[in-house]
């Protein structure tokens, strides 16, 4: 196909008509600002190569349409081998939009595991007036969807053998993928707690005792059955908990962007140029996510 | 079954910065070039558009643009007494893949090495005595190329990227506002420096009060719109704070996509094939000449691509591995010191100082990959090392690349990693803290090297690369000294408190440090102590060229991309002006 077909500047974008008109430009989500104006402003029209300009315009549209369209392209997965010659390959409607989390309720965690996860996350990030706790931010739901998906299945992990334990400097050395590790670790921790706290499960322990167990896992002092390395599991649980707390709400955690509000992070804002030189001033933007702001979308419900 | 394809003039193995630069140079010289990239095609609107590029979880923590180690990783150990085990998850370094590769997710920090950095052995020996370069079993050496020889090519890369900065040394004359320690530049930067946010400004003020020489970090995050000599346009950076580890949706970060591909992809004599992994370079029976490369595509089909020239333009770790797998050059043996392929693997010695204020709102989310005020007073040999017990140094940068909260929340000394106390520390300090980065050199050492792992194999059945690496006493001493210098600046900013994150203990694959792996295919003056000559041409197989940071005989205290690009242009110039007329060794051994 010719580059003319691909970079047709005469295409109009249906999404551009749905912009909320009542917001100041800086309040709009990146996808709701006019990308044509923005790109045109960024690109000085001196000695402009026509093909290049078309490329830029086409580019902006792809980004705009992408978020609302279903993802049909996975830039990571790649796909079949391809050969390119004579032009920059670009296909309309193929923006590699993030997958996000959907539905409600747990699909990965079994009921007993839910009790553990909600208790543990509640201790890792407790709730108070300063900001939401991990449970209030829906971190357990985030973890559930992560473990049910690619991350849980060990995408981006090498899990081939042999599997000697290794040194701390050699990092994660387990045959378990993250989903398997969580499953094995939760069972092993409940077994440990049962044996050491009069048959009570982790979720039923007093907060102080829960902290004591978590600290024992963190330091590796608590040894677990089932081939689970307690330190490795704790490190993964804490990292994933912070991910769920602070990541974009499309992944199911950070409910109402409460964690972002707590620290003062404005989220997926795209342009801070006017604030660069305003040293020491508080940027007044409320946080915005990839799908917009609470109140704009279903994320507030 | 292997399908043999039509011969080409040159085949590029890997298509990031070096592949794109070399591809453009060879195509402009009229050669018929095929590039083989093992990852997918990537472009700005499809893969990191502004509508969804600011996604910390997906790009940073789920490695969306990084190499997927499920299929191929490497093994790691600190020394030969240990058993190397696979890097099962990316951590210390974030390897690229796909078109543009690391050039997509880099910071855009564009540095030139110091003139003395190219003469690490002879310069330090002359100034500090013979032992200074051999203490701690260091195996440093000179590069076989000088700063003066590379200067025009550094300049060429600046013009390609539109680098934003302020010259400190124009043709030997020191310029106010720039880095007074840098080698002479033939031209001012193509675009002015970025505007500094609050934290880098405070850093610069404090550094100047201490008598240091602060200047704005040279950057490929552009301060203003720019059209490069190939007609590609870049826009002005919007300081969105999602730069390094991310692709830029705004065409503001110099990358193969924004600077080269619109031009190169339109060339009729250039072909790019994606999802094609080169398994090995095929040599003639006498191992003096390469006949082409064997590759497998994502559909599992195997091909032989005959070529007059084979350009290894993959990442350093892959280039070295392909040489070892293909029988190019003699593998290094740390016991005897014999052999060269895999020798002098080095890295970067990183530390930092966190600075916490009560009374200053720093807005760390306003950032860019190379947004920093820097001092270079303690880099390379810019200071007297007499009696210090180490060689090398670091730049110290008051740097704010973003405030992405999973990665970049700083908490004071003694704060636990979780619980209410952690949460309160995060809430209190996020807007009022930042980190000073100490970006240190890493000298080469007899025991640090790359070879093939005896146990672990990739999905193609090939041995994985094995990395044997640890920081040496030289690096620990350097880093401690430099971290103390950074702390001086931190204290001079009058903060509530600071926290020193020193470089302690053995190299670990777990925490992110930097993707600046170097060496293993080192350049030099003779085949006895190097893999490639000053034009990156294999001493053993003269129609094989190995680009990238593998050529560094040791690593300087700067980000490598500027030097990687300059070496590539330097090699390309020699290939197109001399080698094509007479395909033979460019340097007589």
Which CATH architecture of chain B would you pick? 3-Layer(bba) Sandwich
CATH class of chain B: Alpha Beta
SSE string of chain A, helices as H and strands as E: HHHEHHHHHH
Count of discrete alpha- or pi-helical segments spanning 4 or more residues of chain B = 13
Radius of gyration of chain A: 24 Å
The CATH topology assignment of chain B is FAD/NAD(P)-binding domain
Residue fraction in strands of chain A: under 5%
Uncertain stretches of chain A? 1-71
Give the N-to-C terminal Cα separation of chain A.
46 Å
Provide a descriptive summary of the structure in words:
The complex is a heterodimer of chains A (301) and B (589). Chain A is built from nine helices and one strand. Chain A is an all-alpha fold and 301 residues long. Chain A folds into two domains: 1-97, no CATH class; 111-259, no CATH class. The two termini of chain A are 46 Å apart. Chain B is α/β, with parallel strands linked by helices. Chain B has one domain: FAD/NAD(P)-binding domain. Helices cover 22% and strands 19% of the residues of chain B. Chain B is built from 13 helices and 22 strands. In chain B, the strands form five sheets. In chain B, strands 1, 2, 3, 11, 12, 13, 14 and 22 form an eight-stranded mixed β-sheet that branches. In chain B, strands 8-16-17-18-15-21 form a six-stranded antiparallel β-sheet. In chain B, a hairpin with a 4-residue loop joins strand 13 (290-297) and strand 14. The longest helix of chain B has 20 residues, at 473-492. Chain B is globular. The mean pLDDT of chain B is 97. The interface between A and B is large, with 110 and 108 residues.
Write a concise keyword list for the protein shown above.
heterodimer, A: 301 residues, mainly alpha, 2 domains, 9 helices, globular, disordered N terminus, B: 589 residues, alpha/beta, FAD/NAD(P)-binding domain, 8-stranded mixed β-sheet, 6-stranded antiparallel β-sheet, 13 helices, 22 strands, 22% helix, 19% strand
